[in-house]
Amino acid sequence: MIKKNIIAGILALGLIGVSCSSDDAPVPVANLTMEVIGLEALTNGATYEGWLIVDGTPMSTGKFTNTATSQIFIVNADQLNKASEFVLSIEPPNDNDAGPSNTKLLSGTFSGNTASVTINSVVGNFSTASGKYVMATPTDDPATTDNDEFGIWFEDPNDGTAIAGLDLPQLSSGWKYEGWVIFKNETPVTTGKFTDVNSFDESSPYSGNAPAPNFPGEDFLSNPPAGKGLMFPVDGDVRGKTVVISVEPAEDFDVDNPFFLKPLSGRSTQLTAPAINTLQWNDDAPFGRVLR
C-alpha cells in the first residue's frame, strides 16, 4: 500500500510538471534571412550583432562571426512581424551591454517583408568621396630640405593657399577615419585617426618637433612601430607606396591594421617630392537585404 501511494505521488508530480498554462506556452519563432555581400571576419573577439527595431526599441537577433553571404537566424515571430527596421552593429570584445553599440555598420527600413541594408545612414555615404595628399616633411628640422619623400599630408597646396585634401562625409557616432601607408612586406603604418579633414589628427608618433600643418598626416622620421621590422627614416619613404583612408570603429579592437571599410586608396606615383597624389573612391562597402 505504501509503495502504491509513493508511485501515485510520483505520477501526480509528473503530471504537474508537464502541464502547461498559457504563460508557459512556447514563444512563436520565425526565420530571418540576411543576405549581405562584403562582410569580413572581425578580429580580437569583436562580433557582429543584428537588431530588429520594434516601436523604436532594438531587439537582438543574436551575435555572430560568420561572414557567409546568406545566413538564417531564428527570432521572435511577433518582434519580426512588428519590426520597422533592421540594424547590424559591431560589438566589442567581452560585450555585456544589452543594447547595440554606437558602431552600427548596416541599416535598412522594411518595405513589406524586405529591408535593403547599406552603410549610408549609419556610417556615411561615400559616393562622392575623393582625396589628395602631398609628400612633405614639415615637422623635420627646417634646415633639412631634401627629404620630403618621408612624409605625407592630406592637404592640397592650392596654388600656395593650402586647403583640405580630403573630401569625406561627416561620420556617424561610433566611427573615425584613419590614414595608412603600406610599407615593405605589406606592413600598414598609421598616419593617425581623425574626424575633421580640416584639423590635426589624434597622434603624431613618428613626426619631428617642428609645427605640423593643420591637416591629418604624418612624417615617418623616427620611433618606428615595434615589431614591424621597419626603421625610420630609411624605411619611411612613401614613394611608390599604397596610401589608404579607412573608417575605423571608434572603440578600435585592432589598432595595427586598417578596418575593411576603405573608401579611399591610391598609390604614390608622383615620385618627385614634393608631389601631389590622388586617392580614388573604392565602391566596396558591404550591402544587401534582410528578408522576413
Number of domains: 2
**Can you tell me the overall shape?**
elongated
Uncertain stretches:
1-22
Terminal residue distance = 59 Å
Separate helix tally: 2
Strands, total number: 19
Q: Gyration radius, to the nearest Å?
A: 27 Å
Largest sheet: 9 strands, antiparallel
The run of helices and strands is: HEEEEHEEEEEEEEEEEEEEE
Beta-strand residue fraction: 35-45%
Q: What would the average pLDDT be, to the nearest integer? A: 90
Set out the fold topology:
Layout lengths: L1 H17 L10 E9 L9 E8 L2 E8 L5 E7 H6 L2 E7 L12 E8 L2 E4 L12 E6 L15 E3 L1 E2 L6 E2 L1 E2 L7 E9 L3 E8 L22 E3 L22 E8 L14 E4 L8 E6 L5 E5 L1
Antiparallel strand pairs: 1-4, 1-19, 2-3, 2-5, 5-6, 6-7, 7-19, 8-9, 8-12, 8-18, 9-15, 10-11, 13-14, 13-16, 16-17, 17-18
Give a quick set of tags describing it.
9-stranded antiparallel β-sheet; 37% strand; 8-stranded antiparallel β-sheet; mainly beta; 2 domains; 292 residues; disordered N terminus
Account of the 3D structure:
The protein is mainly beta and 292 residues long. The protein folds into two domains: 24-123, no CATH class; 130-284, no CATH class. Helix content is 8%, strand content 37%. It has two helices and 19 strands. Strands 8, 9, 12, 13, 14, 15, 16, 17 and 18 form a nine-stranded antiparallel beta sheet that branches. The longest helix is centred in the N-terminal third of the chain and has 17 residues, at 2-18. 35% of the residues are buried. The model is unreliable at 1-22 (pLDDT under 50).
